[in-house]
Amino acid sequence: MKRPIPAVILAGGLSRRMGGGNKALSLLAGETLLTHVLRRLRPQCGAIAINANGDAEQFGEYGLPVIADGFTGYAGPLAGVLAGMEWAAGQGADRVISVSVDTPFLPDDLVWRLREAEGRSGIALAASPDEGGRLRDHPTCALWPVAMAGALRAALESGQHRIGQFAASHDPGRAVYDSQPFDPFLNMNTPQDLGRAAHLI
Fold it and tell me: Which of 58, 119, 123, 126 has its CA 20 to 30 A from that of 111?
């Protein structure tokens, strides 16, 4: 039996369009975005950590490890993936799943599908077609080999902060999902997004 893969929930964003505060704790249909993501993720993976910067006590009720970026300033989700890789390596894992805290409709088979879609580098990205039918990657929802931590750290230190650019440069595999009746990687960026998504819960 395959060992469950640990996962890191990327919750280190600045939440500017959400009006500040902590996006992970924003409410959708009466529950936090973090609660929605955990409900979908927990049955699929092993240990879970939250990548967030600032006061870790705000996540105290969840009883999960909170790991901060290892870079000063805001280095984007790629720094969160690196923190997740290093944490997962400390758990004895060779891979880690990343998901974004603002994607409350994650598929129930995400981890399995990513595992099946591993590219030659070991990276697999979730993807879905946009409204025009063009395939769009969702690189925050991905499978990463922890052995790539050195390359990722070097990329960050050289100023590369775009997670999609880094992933695309390493020949990733893709787990492609249908975007009908709605995209399962729909992300919540504004209070209006939360309002529109409430009826989908």
Answer: 58
Beta carbons of 107 and 91 less than 8 angstroms apart: no
Q: Is 189 annotated as a binding residue?
A: no
23 marked as part of a ligand binding site: yes
How many domains are there within the chain?
1
Helix (H) or strand (E) holding 116: helix 110-116
Q: Is 10 annotated as a binding residue?
A: yes
Q: Is 12 annotated to bind ligand?
A: yes
Q: How far apart are CA 84 and CA 1, in angstroms?
A: 24
pTM of the model: 0.93
Q: Is 20 annotated as a binding residue?
A: no
Task: Indicate which CATH number applies to the domain containing 112.
Answer: 3.90.550.10
Annotated binding-site residue? 84: no
